Amino acid sequence: MSSEMKQATCSCGFSVVSDDETEIVEIIQNHADGKHGKAMTVKDVRGMLKEA
Ligand SMILES: [Zn+2]
């Protein structure tokens, strides 16, 4: 089992760190929609993921 932490950072500076990619995707999608009125796909968010 791997417990690599992943991080996604929004262009506004908001960032999420978790070992659960699904959780990161949900949080970033909610953030992008709520804060920026921008719909992001799972693929978009996965493209932002980096090792944390
Ligand atoms: Zn943002």
Topology of this structure?
Blueprint: E1 6-9, E2 15-18, H1 21-36, H2 42-48, E3 50-51
Antiparallel strand pairs: 1-2, 1-3
Bound molecules: zinc ion.
Descriptive overview:
This is DUF1059 domain-containing protein. It comes from Haloferax larsenii. InterPro entries: DUF1059. The protein has 52 residues and is of the alpha+beta class. It has one domain. 44% of the residues lie in helices and 19% in strands. The protein is built from two helices and three strands; from the N terminus they run E-E-H-H-E. Strand 1 and strand 2 (15-18) form a beta hairpin. The radius of gyration is 10 Å and the shape is globular. The mean pLDDT is 95. Zinc ion (ZN) binds next to helix 1.
Quick overview:
Helices cover 44% and strands 19% of the residues. It has 52 residues and is an alpha+beta fold. It has one domain.
Which characteristics define this entry?
2 helices; 44% helix; 52 residues; alpha+beta; binds zinc ion; 3-stranded antiparallel β-sheet
Alpha plus pi helix count: 2
Helicity, as a percent range: 40-55%
Oligomer: single chain
Largest sheet: 3 strands, antiparallel
Residue windows where pLDDT falls under 50 for at least 5 positions: none
Tell me the series of helices and strands, N- to C-terminal.
EEHHE
What strand order characterises the main sheet?
Answer: 2-1-3
Average residue-wise pLDDT: 95
How large, in whole angstroms, is the Cα Rg? 10 Å
Global geometry:
globular
Distance from first to last alpha carbon:
17 Å
In this entry the ligands are: zinc ion
Strand content: 15-25%
Number of DSSP E strands: 3
